[in-house]
Design a protein that fits this description.
Layout (H helix, E strand, L loop, with lengths): L4 E2 L3 E9 L3 E8 L4 E8 L7 H15 L9 E7 L2 E7 L3 E3 H8 L4 H20 L2 E2 L8 E4 L4 E3 L6 E2 L4 E2 L13 H5 L2 E2 L1 H17 L9 H10 L14 H10 L11 H21 L6 E3 L6 H4 L6 E2 L4 E4 L23 H30 L3 H4 L6 E3 L8 H11 L2 E7 L9 E5 L5 E3 L3 E7 L4 E3 L8 H10 L3 E8 L9 E5 L16 E3 L3 E7 L11 H9 L4 E8 L9 E5 L10 E7 L4 E3 L8 H10 L3 E3 L12 E6 L5 E3 L3 E7 L1
Parallel strand pairs: 14-16, 18-21, 23-26, 27-29, 31-34
Antiparallel strand pairs: 1-2, 2-3, 3-4, 4-6, 5-6, 7-9, 8-11, 9-10, 12-13, 15-16, 17-20, 19-21, 22-25, 24-26, 28-29, 30-33, 32-34
Helix pairs in contact: 3-5, 3-8, 5-7, 7-8
GO molecular function, one term: protein serine/threonine kinase activity
InterPro entries: Kinase-like_dom_sf (IPR011009), PASTA_dom (IPR005543), Prot_kinase_dom (IPR000719), Ser/Thr_kinase_AS (IPR008271)
Organism: Agreia pratensis
Length: 652
């Protein structure tokens, strides 16, 4: 993907992060010449309409928000089969990175970050959007000091009771009790997640931990979030109360939306500052309730009643919210915040004990509960290992488990074609019921083009084979008069057949990781003519050839006993072959013909044809027809080497 041009506009530079649904890359917008973050949906999810809808929903949700604390969305589209989302690029870190580096944050840092987070949430809630996946990983801290909320991939339009659909979404450590027990979420679910984040910033740890997601979910559903000061005694009491208010188990007891909690956060910050300043006599102290009720949280105007040096925050005179029980009257007056908190805690504890009793009873009677196996942590399914199975059998196994199966083809050099390679998510992973699982089926080795190997040095050819994702096979050598030593003459497949087409291997299709064997030139066979047998043998051995004495033949040009030539055993000569040495016997002997009594004109023709070097009187050629041969030396019938001198005597 690095270096790819998307939709003719966005040049991908590097990868930033990878999530369960998409990967985020740093890219350059060539049209506007600016850096952007481009979020690309995973290829195996591209065919799933629900994932595409969720991906597009993120773009629409974020695009509806124009707020300095929300990551801007610039563009969304489809390039071939690839869905993408173009967002503002913020160089920096996430809140999760900050918590990993520093553990516990100071009160001032916590207030600054929460002010920005709640500002972004307030804008989202006002626009009718519930984030549903608020967590430190989605809070971006830019290098220039900006703080923004990102990743609205799980967001959904707000209604009175927004359902999650088929499975729980978001991260289990930040899910609200109503989302775990009833599968519903609204703006107050985001407030709960914000409260958990605030607790984690103040204490350096999450309020509920466990070895299994079910344990964490059970605590969220049944236990009250503890005060941060129980872990970090330096946390002010006002922040304790704000965290408890945001993380109340009953949504009715929380702030109604991000705006309500943001207003209370700022009032709490003012109260803390005023309380601190009061010790120097500079300002009056403002005393606030431990946690505002939803009546105050939803009020447009809040009044302060002056009581002298100390001012008390009073409740606005409004009718109780319709979702509260009619009995909540005097118990909710601002005069008794401690009593109200104690009563709320007692109610939560009674509810927790009741829920625990029901769960234990159902487990004892039925071996499990509908909550656990339906919408609770029990809906998390473990993907079995189906690698090596037939696709139909593996799909049947997964569908019986309760997931939605799609098939995806993938080349493999180790898994036979038509056999399951594995799944995505992989075996052993935990997924929600009805989650999408991709069944990856092998198509066998990929068919890839070969590079040019013929005429290339064998070292470069071996590297080219590996770079092209093939395996270097065996190497054989053959002597060649047309190519220098080390040059590739041909390439062969696993069966030994040539891979070349019209003298070239470039572009020839071959299976991935299959062996490519090379035929390499060993150079030319050295010339050993006119060498002694020993010298010729040593010369041939120096290039890996053996030598054996062969036939002896007459030669007019090669000295007797020397090598005339080395004869190959076949048309193709390989190192280790034995060459036959043809040895000279010297010039071939001839018998002096009998030309005595013959006219010189005839005798001369016979002797010249026999190859003799003639010596005769000069006058014989004047009238050769009248001259007669009288004798030869050597005499007729004598065997002499071809080319020997023959003296002829004539008479006139």
């Amino acid at each position: 993907m690095i270096g790819r041009l998307i939709d003719g506009r966005y040049q991908v530079r590097s990868r930033i992060a990878r999530g369960g649904m998409a990967t985020v890359y740093l890219a350059t917008d060539l049209r506007l010449e600016r850096r952007v973050a481009i979020k690309i949906m995973h290829g195996h999810l591209a065919d799933e309409s629900n994932f595409k809808e969720r991906f597009v929903q993120e773009a629409r949700s974020a695009a509806r928000l124009a707020h300095p604390n929300v990551v801007n969305v610039f563009d969304q589209g489809q390039d071939s089969d690839m869905a993408y989302l173009v967002m503002e690029y913020l160089p920096g870190m996430t809140l999760r990175d900050l918590l990993k580096d520093y553990g516990t944050l100071t009160t001032e840092q916590t207030l600054d970050i929460m002010d920005a987070v709640l500002g972004g949430l307030a804008a989202a809630h006002k626009a009718g959007i519930v984030h549903r996946d608020l967590k430190p990983e989605n809070v971006l801290l830019a290098d220039d000091g900006r703080i923004k909320i990102g990743d609205f991939g799980l967001s959904r339009a707000t209604s009175a009771n927004t359902a999650t659909g088929q499975a729980l979404l978001g991260t289990i450590a930040y899910l609200s009790p109503e989302l775990l027990t009833r599968g519903t979420a609204d703006a107050r679910s985001d407030i709960y997640a914000a409260g958990i984040m605030m607790y984690e910033m103040l204490t350096g740890a999450q309020p509920f931990v466990g070895d299994q997601p079910m344990q964490i979910a059970f605590q969220h559903a049944n236990d009250q979030v503890p005060r941060p000061s129980a872990v970090n005694p330096s946390v002010p009491r006002d922040l304790d109360e704000l965290v408890l208010w945001a993380t109340a188990k009953d949504p009715v007891d929380r702030p109604t939306d991000g705006r309500a909690m943001l207003e209370q956060l700022r009032l709490t910050e003012q109260s803390m500052s005023a309380t601190q300043a009061a010790t120097t006599g500079i300002q009056r102290t403002v005393v606030m309730p431990a946690a505002l009720s939803p009546d105050i949280a939803s009020a447009q105007t809040q009044s302060f009643q002056k009581t002298g040096i100390t001012s008390a925050l009073t409740m606005p005179n409004r009718a109780p919210a319709t979702q509260r029980a009619p009995q909540q009257t005097a118990a909710h007056s601002p005069a008794a915040p401690a009593d109200r908190l104690k009563a709320s805690v007692a109610v939560r504890r009674r509810r927790a004990f009741w829920l625990v009793g029901i769960v234990l009873l159902l487990v004892a009677l039925a071996g499990g509960t509908g909550w656990y196996f339906g919408i609770g942590p029990g809906a998390q399914l473990t993907i079995p290992d189906v690698a090596g199975q037939a696709p139909d059998a593996a799909q049947s196994t997964l569908e019986k488990l309760g997931v939605v199966v799609t098939r995806a083809d993938q080349s493999s050099v180790t898994v036979p074609a038509g056999t399951v390679i594995g799944t995505d998510p992989s075996s052993g992973a935990h997924v929600a019921r009805d989650a999408a699982v991709s069944l990856i089926v092998s198509t066998g080795p990929a068919q890839l083009p070969l590079p040019q190997l013929i005429g290339v040095d064998k070292t470069a050819a071996a590297q080219a084979i590996q770079n092209a994702k093939f395996t270097l096979g065996s190497e054989s050598q053959v002597f060649s008069n047309s190519a220098a030593a080390g040059i590739v003459l041909d390439a062969y497949n696993a069966e030994g057949a040539s891979l070349a087409s019209n003298g070239s291997t470039e572009g020839v299709i071959y299976s991935e990781a299959q062996p490519v064997s090379l035929l390499v030139s060993a150079g030319a066979i050295p010339d050993v003519s006119n060498k002694t047998v020993d010298d010729a043998t040593a010369t041939l051995q120096s290039v890996g050839l053996s030598a054996a004495a062969g036939e002896q033949v007459y030669s007019d040009s090669i000295k007797e006993g020397n090598v005339i030539q080395a004869i190959a055993p076949a048309d193709t000569v390989h190192p280790g072959d034995t060459m036959s040495l043809q040895i000279s016997r010297g010039p071939e002997p001839v018998t002096v013909p009998d030309v005595v009594g013959k006219p010189w004109i005839d005798a001369k023709s016979i002797l010249v044809a026999a190859g003799f070097d003639l010596s005769y009187p000069a006058g014989a050629d004047i009238v050769p027809a009248l001259v007669t041969v009288t004798a030869t030396n050597p005499a007729a019938g004598t065997s002499v080497p071809r080319g020997s001198k023959l003296t002829v005597s004539v008479s006139f």
